[in-house]
Amino acid sequence: MIAMITCLSINKCSIASTTTHKHSSNIITNKKMSNIRVTVAALWCVVVVFGGLTLSSDAQLDTSFYKKTCPKVHSIVREVVRNVSKKDPRMLASLIRLHFHDCFVLGCDASILLNNTDTPTKIESEQQAAPNNNSIRGLDVVNQIKTAVENACPGIVSCADILTLASEISSVLGGGPDWKVPLGRRDGVTANRTLANLNLPSPFSGLDTLKSRFLAQGLNTTDLVALSGAHTFGRARCTFITNRLYNFSNSGKPDPTLDTTYLQQLRGECPNGGNGNNLVNFDLTTPDTIDNHYYSNLQVKKGLLQSDQELFSTTGADTINLVNTFAKNQDAFFASFKASMIKMGNIGVITGKNGEIRKQCNFINKKSAELDLASVVSKESSQEGLVSSF
Ligand code: HEM
């Protein structure tokens, strides 16, 4: 008889006993059973006392998590991101945003990468949630990174960690700060489109809503202001600013917190009734670089989104001082940006024995197995087809 003790977390241990001998149920005497019970109970105590140290799923992330199992992971990710960004500098911004949109929905578990599937479990992809649809970029780049990482260390590095590493690397390649990335996240086995629609902030939000969306993720006002600094690079579609340019709050007039020269420039780039998918740079002077211009732009009413300008133009707001500090001192911005990126990267992480290390970032492993099986079957039947054609 084997007693199996499984612990999903310190408080969630279960004992499953299996009988291995064919007729052992008849042979085992009551005395033996009670001995086994005592042994199992003793083992249970050992697990309860020490389980937290060894089997806990609440393990902390660790910057040297892959030191032994995939020591080159950082340079592998860096190489792919660097190559892609040579041709497409915007990709650095897109990858940071992908990480943000992942972490705000079910935590940093790579749920954003999961495609729609009906079997073996139904997954409603977050990719079609309003803030992501036709908007997020970089899914193919993540797959390219995953392939490179799997070639070096198969089955070791999670897609959630790849997103986090790619963000730090994007910061550095974009001229921003570097930091040691806490690692050891595991991938989730589900996604939640409804939560993506609820949790991700809207560009039309006022300051209170922005603060509360961040607070719901354990991020404070400093985090909000520091992380919004990611809008120092990348692009936004005209559709998110046309109301500010032509009919703010149904006034028939532009947003009064928009500089008039900047307004004319933006109207040129986003004509009224024009293509909402046209792109505008977030930062009018250094569009592909991480620097503190985002904050100096806000000071002169040149924030692109309403949600950006809210940080400086909301009367009496506690965010104004932070904007001024970051505009004056880029080092202060970089220090806060790092700290807040690490904090965001910690949201709801799955560690230890929970979740899984996905084989393919767009599918949970059960689905990958199903797809592998299907491809084996189709290969076999095509081979049969070949045989019968002779
Ligand atoms: C504070 C609330 C935020 C709102 C309302 C917001 C909203 C938006 C919107 C509407 C876009 C343009 C999307 C499009 O045109 O399709 C965008 C782009 C972007 N966002 Fe945010 N965002 C916020 C916070 C953040 C945070 C916290 C980060 C990262 C830490 C971030 C990083 C980016 C980047 C880098 C881009 C450009 C992406 C690209 O060019 O592909 N945003 N954001």
UniProtKB/TrEMBL annotation:
One Pfam family this sequence matches: peroxidase
Binding site for substrate: 201
Residues of the site described as Transition state stabilizer: 97
Co-factor binding details: Binds 1 heme b (iron(II)-protoporphyrin IX) group per subunit.
Transmembrane annotation, as ranges: 36-55
Highest classification ranks of the organism: Eukaryota, Viridiplantae, Streptophyta, Embryophyta, Tracheophyta
Top-level lineage group: Eukaryota
Keywords, alphabetical: Calcium, Disulfide bond, Glycoprotein, Heme, Hydrogen peroxide, Iron, Membrane, Metal-binding, Oxidoreductase, Peroxidase, Secreted, Transmembrane, Transmembrane helix
Domain Plant heme peroxidase family profile span(s) in chain numbering: 60-365
Places the protein is found: Secreted
Principal place of residence: secreted
The keyword Transmembrane belongs to this UniProt entry's keyword annotation: yes
BP terms from Gene Ontology: hydrogen peroxide catabolic process; response to oxidative stress
InterPro entries: Haem_peroxidase (IPR002016), Haem_peroxidase_sf (IPR010255), Peroxidase_pln (IPR000823), Peroxidases_heam-ligand_BS (IPR019793), Secretory_peroxidase (IPR033905)
Record's protein name: Peroxidase
Database matches in PROSITE patterns: PEROXIDASE_1 (PS00435), PEROXIDASE_4 (PS50873)
Record-listed heme b binding positions: 231
Top-level class of the enzyme under EC nomenclature: oxidoreductase
Disulfide bonds: 70-153, 103-108, 159-361, 238-270
Positions with a binding annotation for Ca(2+) 1: 102, 105, 107, 109, 111, 126
EC number: 1.11.1.7
Catalytic residue positions: 101 (proton acceptor)
Gene Ontology MF annotations: heme binding; lactoperoxidase activity; metal ion binding
SUPFAM superfamilies listed in its UniProt record: Heme-dependent peroxidases
